[in-house]
Every structure is written in C-alpha cells, then in structure tokens.
Design a protein that fits this description.
heterodimer, A: 314 residues, alpha/beta, 6-stranded mixed beta sheet, 15 strands, elongated, B: 259 residues, mainly alpha, globular
C-alpha cells in the first residue's frame, strides 16, 4: 500500500501544479557596465512551448544561462518550478534538460560516454531513452565527437537534453546544423514532449520552426523583452498584405481612407496594400468592383519579428 | 562523485603514459648509466663550483640515489609533474568551459563544488599514477643495470613530488576562480612554479635571502630520496594544497561561467 501523503506534501504538490515552469521577475544581468539583459519578466507554463526570439547579442543566451545558474543575476530573480535559480539550482537541474547554444563536449569522448556519464549523474538506469533517440535522429554514439560533423554533434546534444525525460527543456538554437529531415524530426519530438506535459523554452533564429511549434513567443530586443504573445495573436495583430486585380480603374483614395489600410500601391491594374485589424470594410469596398484576382497574404512570424527591429539594421 | 572522477581519469588516460613513460625512461637511463660513470663523476663533482652544486642540488654524487636526485628529482620531475598538475586541472575546468563540456555537465544536478572536488581528486590520482610509473621504470632500470638503487629511497623521492605538484594543481583551481582561459590558467601557474623554484634557489645561494624561501613551496621539498620524507612538510604541503583547492572551489562557485 502506498503511504498517504501528509497535508504539507499535498499542499506542496498542489502548489507545484500551479507554479509556472519558468518565472522571471525583472531579471537583470550586467557584465560589468555592459548590458546583458534588463528587467526580463516572463512566465512559461507547464506543457507550453515558448519561443524566445531575438538577433545575436539581444540577450537570449544570457537569459538561459542565468536560469541555469551559470550566470548570477545582477538584480531580479528567476524561478523554475517555484525553485530559486540560485539557491536551488541543483534541484532545478535534476528536472530539466538543456541543450547549450553551440553544443560541444570536447573531441575525445564518444556520444555513448557522454550519455553514460550524464545518466550516472542523473541517477538514470542504463542510458535511459538515449538508444531510441539515437535511432530516431540516426545519431552515431560510438565515434569520438571530434570526428563528427556539426549536425551530428548537435544530435548528441539533443539526446543529452532529452534522454532522461525532463519536465522542462531549455534549448538554445536546437536545429543549428541539422538537415531538414532531422529538423522535422526535432519539431515532431517537441510536440510529443508538449503532449507529455513537458515545458519547452526554445531560443531560436529559425522563425519558421518557431511559428510551427511554439504556443507563445517572447521577443527580446537590446536586452529587454518587447513582446510576449501567443503566436496566433501576434500574427493576427500584424497587418496582412492584400493584392487585388480589378477589371476597371478604381478610386484609390476611397481605399486609402479605409480604416487600417496603409502602404497602398497601384500599377498594371493591380492594387496592393496592407490592412490591419478588421478586414470587413476592405472586403466590402473591393466587392463594389469587378475583381479578377485577389491575394491575401498572412504575415510570417519573420515579418512580424522584423517589425520589432525596423530601423535597427539600417 | 566517483562517476565524475572516473570520467576525468578516462579522459586523461593517455597523459599517464605520455608523462609517466618519458620521465620513467629518463630516470631509468640516469640510474642505469650510474655504475659506469660513478668514479669519473665523483672526481668531476669535486671540481664543480660550490654555487653550481647548490643551484642544482648537487651534493656528493657517490651514490645512485644522490645522482638520481641531482639529475631528476631536484628539478626536472617536480617541474614536469607540477606543470602536469596545472594542465590537468585546467583541462577539467577552463578547458571544459572552452570546449562547452562544462555547460553540459552543469546541466546535470551537480554542484560546481562537486565538480571542482572531482577534478582535484582526479588530478591527485593522475599525479600519483604518473609518479608510480616513473618509479616503476626507474626501479626496473636499476635492476637491469645492477645500479643498486634502494626501492624505499626511490619511493620516498618520487612520492615527495606528489604534494608539491598537487599544490600547483590547486593554484590552478584558484586561478580558474578568476579566469576560464586555459592559456591564462596554465601560463600564470607555470610562471609561479618556475618563480618559486628560482626564489628558493636564490635563498639557497645567498644566505641573506634565506627568509624569502618561505614563500616558495620548494623550501619544504628537501631531498627525500636521501633523507627520507619529512612527514611535517609532506603533510603541511598536502594540507595547503587541499586548502587552496577549497578556496578555488569557493571562487569558482561564485563566479559567472563564460569564456
């Protein structure tokens, strides 16, 4: 018979079900006078895939390394499953799997040796789920990692992050170096992990894969989070591009004055413009004319992302 | 902890041979040629300048133990094994940080202190193994040549290198508390190793500088192959090495990890 949990254990279990997988409160990290990240406040729920987006140097890796206690915050706090990232870092790491950006493990050790060591450190019997993952990713566990290509090394890194079935996955540029087939396999795996209830914190440049797999995204710019949204909401909020070919000339001023319409251009009988918000007035205005062709392009996450960085690259 | 130590030793298994074999074969050669040069050597040494004899720890060279000390154990073995110690510590910490392995290991539920302790223990075992290989080959050289090297004296001589070398490994751990660049860790501690030898040498050559020898661990090294191990010095240097490693672990625990 299993022992009945006491009230304190039950309360802790209840609390544990409620606390987010990751919660940062005004997390700030400076390297001397140089800014790492500032005032990062985000929460990642259990069973959620959270994409963390930003260009190089925006602070994605700094945030991850602070969560893992590899860096110590200058101000603010980070909690993982309700545990303090500094004080309880060992207990936190028992529950997470991490793929560092630019994964490396030295040249001499084989994948099997690395997994075997990590399995012993984690108290996992044998190699855990590593064999199945190796088969799925077609990873070579027997060759020294110095002899593997970048993509094949990355597969070992993914196996090291996943083999013990963690409650939280922290993945920094996980598909870097993987071929398209393996990228698909990885995305399928992330979906399976979410089904299992695992939270995934995914930092990536690959906006297409983020769009396909993430529930929410956070966008970081110059060390600060500038947006946290559901992917679908983010896409809905962003102007869609409309391109219409009319049978006869139309009154462009009438279209331009419609609410939400911008960037209107005309030429060769075709009119294109962006429309934000309610699309209904635009459709009604178009319907007053004979329409030969209509294209309606939903923005990609990449386009959305770039709107947050407009003016920065010039 | 044992998993971490075993993994580090597995990675360093090549260094056991690449350091133990040359040191052992060289020492074996020194011992093996002693019977044939013994008489000429004693005559030559009598004509050496006193300062030169002091500088290289050359006293009377009438026994094979004295000769082995002068040729190997006074300078070459301590410097080589001391350098190996800092190199090993650096590969386990700063080298691991540079290769990315440290990030992977610290993704597991392992405290930094445990990681440093494992590295220190692995280095201590590695040094002992290298010295044991060197001792074994030297003894075989003596047996084959009939040089008559006393095993217990040779054991004392080689064993006495262990705490001294370990101390430089610990200094390496302290330096990783400030820098995770392998070149800085090995360079600075190798500099300290040579510097301490020179300070001790200066103190021995000039009695007015004797006081400065106390800042050098070589002050406590002596000639164990001739005089036996001084338990107080052996224990004192070992305790100092452990204390420095503990200090290094604390510094390592407090620092940000990036290269």
């Amino acid at each position: 018979m299993r022992p009945t949990p006491g009230p304190q254990a039950a309360a802790t279990a209840c609390e544990n079900r409620l606390v987010p997988a990751i919660e940062t409160e005004r997390l700030t990290k400076f390297y001397g006078s140089h800014r790492g990240v500032e005032e990062i406040t985000i929460a990642v729920e259990r069973g959620e895939v959270f994409g963390f987006l930003g260009p190089n140097g925006a602070g994605k890796t700094t945030t991850i390394r602070t969560l893992l206690d590899l860096l110590h915050p200058t101000r603010g706090s980070a909690r993982v499953f309700g545990l303090d990232s500094r004080r309880d870092s060992v207990a936190i790491r028992a529950r997470l799997g991490n793929l560092p950006g630019d994964f490396g493990y030295g040249k001499l050790a084989t994948g099997r040796e690395a997994i075997s060591l990590l399995a012993r450190l984690r108290g996992v019997a044998g190699l855990g789920g590593a064999a199945a993952l190796a088969e799925r990713f077609r990873a070579d566990l027997e060759r020294p990692m110095g002899q593997l290509s970048r993509g094949n090394r990355q597969k070992i890194g993914l196996i090291l992050a996943l083999f013990h079935r963690p409650d939280l996955l922290v993945l920094d540029e996980p598909t870097s170096g993987l071929d398209p087939l393996m990228q698909e396999e990885f995305l399928a795996l992330v979906r399976e992990e979410r089904e299992r209830g695992c939270a995934v914190f995914l930092s990536s440049h690959e906006l297409d894969e983020v769009e396909r797999v993430c529930d929410r995204v956070g966008i970081i710019r110059e060390g600060r989070v500038v947006a946290v949204e559901r992917v679908s909401d983010l896409l809905d909020k962003t102007p869609r591009r409309v391109s219409v070919e009319f049978a006869e000339p139309v009154d462009l001023a009438g279209l331009r004055e419609l609410p939400g319409v911008s960037d209107l251009e005309a030429g060769d009988g075709r009119v294109s413009f962006k429309v934000a918000g309610n699309i209904d007035p635009v459709l009604k205005a178009i319907a007053r004319h004979t329409v030969l062709d209509l294209e309606f392009a939903r923005p990609t996450l990449e386009e959305v992302f770039l709107t947050y960085y407009e003016g920065e690259t010039g | 902890m044992t998993a971490l130590i075993a993994a580090q030793l597995r990675e360093r298994r090549r260094s056991l041979l690449s350091w133990g074999l040359p040191l052992g074969l060289w020492s074996a050669f020194i011992v093996a040629i002693f019977p044939s040069i013994e008489a000429a050597l004693a005559k030559a040494v009598r004509n050496y300048p006193a300062a030169l004899k002091e500088a290289f720890g050359v006293g009377e060279l009438s026994t094979v133990e004295q000769y082995l000390h002068a040729e190997m154990l006074s300078l070459i073995v301590p410097l080589a094994v001391g350098y190996l110690a800092v190199r090993s510590v650096a590969s386990g910490l700063s080298g691991a940080a540079e290769s990315g392995r440290l990030d992977v290991l610290l993704s597991a539920p392992v405290s930094r202190r445990r990681l440093v302790t494992a590295g220190f223990c692995a280095t201590a075992i590695e040094l002992a193994a290298v010295l044991a290989i060197a001792l074994a080959l030297t003894s075989i050289g003596s047996l084959l040549s009939g040089a008559g090297l006393s095993f217990s004296s040779a054991l004392a001589g080689f064993a006495n290198v262990w705490p001294l070398a370990l101390l430089f490994g610990s200094l390496g751990i302290v330096v990783t508390g400030f820098s995770l660049r392998t070149s800085i860790v090995t360079g600075s501690v190798a500099g300290a190793l040579v510097g301490m030898y020179v300070v001790d040498l200066a103190g021995r050559l000039d009695p007015s500088l004797d006081a400065i020898r106390y800042v050098s661990v070589f002050r406590y090294y002596g000639k164990a192959i001739e005089d036996g191990i001084d338990p107080l010095s052996f224990l004192g240097v070992t305790v100092a090495a452990v204390a420095l490693a503990a200090l290094g672990a604390t510094l390592f625990e407090r620092r940000d990890l990036f290269t």
